[in-house]
Amino acid sequence: MKPTTLADLSQLKKEKRKFATITAYDASFAHLFAEQGINVMLIGDSLGMTVQGFDSTLPVTVEDISYHTRNVRAGAPHSFLIADMPFMSYATPEQSFDNAAALMRSGANMVKIEGGDWLCDTVKMLTERAVPVCGHLGLTPQSVNVLGGYKVQGRDETSAQKLFNDAIALEKAGIQLLVLECVPTGLAQRVTEALEIPVIGIGAGNMTDGQILVMHDALGITARLPKFAKDFLKETGNVRDAVRLYIEQVESGIYPDQAHSFN
User: Fold this and answer.
1) 112 has binding-site annotation
2) What's a Pfam family this protein contains (predicted)?
3) DSSP label at 225?
4) Backbone angles phi, psi at 110, to 5 degrees
C-alpha cells in the first residue's frame, strides 16, 4: 500500500474532495481504521481524558504521546500520523525542537501545536528543521483554564477576525495543515477558502476540507457526547460499519449537519 502524504491531502483540497480523519491511540484500532479507509490519524492529547481518565489534556506528557504514536504506527504503517505536542512542550522554540524530534522518531509524520500568531517563529524553525507542523485554532483544549471552559470560539466579530488573521499568519509561517475546533460554520468556511493548505474541522461545520472526531465520540463510548459529535456505532451496531458510515458521511458532506454545527 502506498503511504499517504501531505501532497495527497493537498490534492484532495484542490479537487474539493472531503476526507475523514480520527484519533487513534493503539495498534488494533489504528489497523481497523486504516483497513476501512481512514488514511490520516491523530495521536491526540485527548488520550489524557479518553484513555488516562483525567478531566483535561494538561497532564499528558511527551512520553505519553510518543508511546501511543509507536503503537499507532505499528498498526497503521502506511497512514499519515499527526502527533499532538502536549501542554508546555513547545513553550519556546528551543523546547519544541527536542520534543518534536522525539515524536517524529516515534513514527509521527507531523506534529500539531495549539495557538495563534505567537507560534509563527516556532513553526518556521520546526519546518526549517524538517518537522511538518499542523496548526490548531478555535477551541484549544490546552488553554481551557484561560478560555474559562470548553466554549465555542470566534462568535463575535473581533475574535473571528483574530482567528482568521492567526490562520493566515500561521500558513505564511509554514504550517501545512490546520485544525479548527468549535467555531461557527461561516467562519470555518471563510478560513478554509482563504488558505491553500487543507483545513480539518471538529465542531466547525461541513465546509472544511476534512473532519476529525475523537474515536470514543464517534463510537459512542464517551459518557456525554459533545454537540458536534455523532455516535455512528449506534446507527450501525458494528464498529467497522460505523467507521465506514463516518467516512461516507464526511466525504458526501452529510456529516456534520446543522444539528452538529455551530452558527
Assistant:
1) yes
2) Pantoate_transf
3) -
4) -165, 150
Query: Taking residues 206-214, what's their average pLDDT?
Result: 98
Answer yes or no: is 114 a known binding residue: yes
- pLDDT of 214 above 90: yes
What is the separation of C-alpha 53 from the centre of its chain, rounded to a whole number of angstroms?
20
The pLDDT value recorded for residue 223 is 87
Which band of pLDDT confidence, cut at 50, 70 and 90, is reported for residue 141? Answer: confident
Mean local confidence (pLDDT), 172-177? 98
Residue 234 is labelled as binding a ligand: no
Please indicate if the annotation marks 46 as binding a ligand: yes
Q: Active-site residue among 94, 181, 196, 251?
A: 181
Environment class of 196 (CB within 10 Å of its CB; exposed 0-12, middle 13-18, buried 19+)? exposed
Q: State the amino acid at position 126 in one-letter form.
A: L
Enumerate residues 6+ apart whose C-beta is below 8 A from 232: 218, 219, 220, 242, 243, 245, 246, 249
Whether 181 is a known active-site residue: answer yes
